[in-house]
Prior knowledge:
Helices cover 16% and strands 42% of the residues of chain A. Chain A is an alpha+beta fold and 245 residues long. In chain A, the strands form three sheets. In chain A, strands 6, 7, 10, 11, 12, 13 and 14 form a seven-stranded mixed β-sheet that branches. A five-stranded mixed beta barrel of chain A has the order 1-2-3-5-4. Chain A has a two-stranded antiparallel sheet with strand order 8-9. The radius of gyration of chain A is 20 Å and the shape is globular. Mean pLDDT of chain A is 91; it is low at 11-23. The interface between A and B is medium-sized, with 31 and 38 residues.
Amino acid sequence: MKKILAFILAAVMALSLVACGDNAADTDEKSEGVMTYDEYVAADLDSQVVVETYVQAKQSWWEDKATVYTQDKDGAYFLYNMACSQEDYDKLTPGTKIKVTGYKSEWSGEVEIIDATFEILEGNYVAEPLDVTAMLGTDDLIKHQNELVTFKGMTVEASQDADGNDVAFLYNDDGSGQDGSDLYFKVSLNGVTYTFTVESYLCDNTTEVYSAVKNLKIGDKIDLEGFLYWYNGVNPHITSVSAAA
Amino acid sequence: MRLLKKLAAFALAGAVAVSLCGCHGSRGLDEFEVPEEFDESRDYEITFWAKNDTNVTQTRIYEKAIADFQKLYPNVTVNLRLYTDYSRIYNDVITNISTNTTPNVCITYPDHIATYKTGTNVVVPLDELFDDEKFGLGGSEVRFDSPAKDEIIPKFLEECSLDGAHYALPFMRSTEACYINKTYVEKLGYTLPEKLTWDFVWEVSEAAMKKSPDGNFAVNGQKVMIPFIYKSTDNMMIQMLRQKNAGYSTDSGEILIFNDDTRDILKTVSEHVATGAFSTFQISSYPGNFLNAGQCIFAIDSTAGATWMGSDAPLSDIHESSFVDFETEVMPIPQFDPDNPAMISQGPSVCIFNKSDPQEVLASWLFAQYLLTNGVQTAYSQTEGYVPVTSKAQNSDEYKDYLSRMGEDNELHYDVKLKASKLLLEHTSDTFVTPVFNGSASLRSAAGQLIENTAKSVRRHETVDDEYFDKLYDDITSLYRLDSIRNTSSGKQDLGELPVTAKLLLLSLAIAWAAIGATFLAERLKKRRKGK
């Protein structure tokens, strides 16, 4: 009997822990007047949008403007230059639920919410990265724009610096930068090469990912995690790099 | 290239934040005095904050200039810090003024220097250095072929003058150009005029909006066509106002931009945004990306962006499969009065920040001066549609040879780039700059924001009428604190009610003076009585 009781208690505890740690978003009811992700996707560019979403990463803040990656259980929303005080910016941590009112916009293929305001709500959700490796090069990939994603088993390819030397990464896309600039590097899968970026505002030169990319060697097999940013095509902003599992 | 967009926030907010910045309050350095000699028994380490256009050749030229300079002056080490945006430099300088950690030499704009100058002796006035017999321009003890003062193009040097003194050296100059898909203009049944006008650009842009039965645009057969895209709406508004002889600001900083001419310009903009014929960089993206993909006909951008423009552009952000073939024409920006053209003069200048050690400042000056040598000037100007700022470089055989080889290849002699440089060389006398004062950087940003806000409102189907413009004027005035600029400039700033401590101090002073006065009178009376 004791064993049965202990098992039941353990099971209940485990279930309750799962419910706490994860994901208010599983039962994510939208408030009155708030769009679902599908409604957001369907909304016209330049139209006003109202969404409830969860902070996943903060990219930058300057003089009351914040740029933030957010996501709910259905999809992601990139908030560009959202009105935000320093005090409120400090309150935004991964998982923080916010209600955002702004305008849907597109800039070089990147769909984002601009001229937005927000309020912090009760609730928390941190997205699990979605493995999109198999979607590379397919039309399905863009459906996950701005989401936290992973790429598995990619191979580091050579970039050419200004002198024509093969290197594993460049400061800026043409090598014109220096330590602290964005890092650009190429990875391939099944013979197709893609350009990935460590965006220096999102992950500066003090971060692990910045160091990891600087230490890459051509031919390394790696797994990557980051946000599925778009600039004239897919241009993921990488936040984590590790040796391929 | 996306980098510029992320920095747009700095450009807007930074200008507001620092326009009336608190450089005051710090005690400040002593005024710089030119040393008699350069003490070469000591080593100097100076920092140079430079800007490049995300162009690795420019980075290499900076690095070579530093290496060559250090060979001439082995006791001077120059540390390079690279930026790709002026506004980020501006904000970082402001931050570092308060901690006395400014760079030694810095690429800058005169508008920015006006703000830096609000601190005490922060920026070194250069006139004495210019004229110094030993270390000045063309000085006897300078170890390189330095240009004489009169070999700096006078118009460009004058742009570096503030409050009667020079606070910078020009480094490179550019202007804006209209990069045109001539093939599409002609396909639409038009011929490019000798001088481009706004009316022509608007007319052709509207004609390009015609669609085929399949829903694609007739002129390019694509789903996307934005016939006219402007990169810098700050410049757009400033130049249109100048061409109309309309108000912008006075030299002393009185704000004149909120006038009926501005309103007319905004109404015109709104009409063409409504049809989809016009957009901006901030709203849509880089004009060059659309131009090269055959999705734009008139792309206005800096001549310093020429290598990104055209079917054979050596630099590009779009995939090569997106390029279309067309003939690219490079013309001065559209004009209201083609016989009296007006276009902005822009491009980097170099200023020197003051330090407690005059010898360190002298080392900085020597390096800044080195940037004007022919080798640096010709090499850097060839990276984009810049022009050298000295007649010495412009008239050099190397530069003349470079210009004469236009179109020989699509790299160094890329024809669009050389056309852009020639445009400025031919129109230097038609260029202008706006008045510089503390807050002029904010006014510049405000000028562009008027266009950006109007365009966004039209796209969002808001009502854009006179009532809208009244509110827009108020909003922009508030956002950029333009009221404060005016008050500061006129010297009639309302400082508000005095704090209590100040009132108490004044009261105690008044009481003390009253007591002194009373004592004095009492003594006088005593003496009189005694005298009686």
